Amino acid sequence: MSTCEDYTFVCPECSQSITVNASMREALVENGCVICGAPVTQSAFDPGCDE
Ligand SMILES: [Zn+2]
């Protein structure tokens, strides 16, 4: 069974893929990609569960 607590983030700009939790996701949306600084939207995150 998968958990809904983690998300896979794939940057639309630099294609960096990292696993983040909910609070990290919010920080990325607010601050942009940690690697390249590109703006990040909710759609860049793939939830770890199907909903
Ligand atoms: Zn990036």
From TrEMBL:
Taxonomy, superkingdom: Archaea
Protein name per its UniProtKB record: Small CPxCG-related zinc finger protein
Native source species: Natrialba chahannaoensis JCM 10990
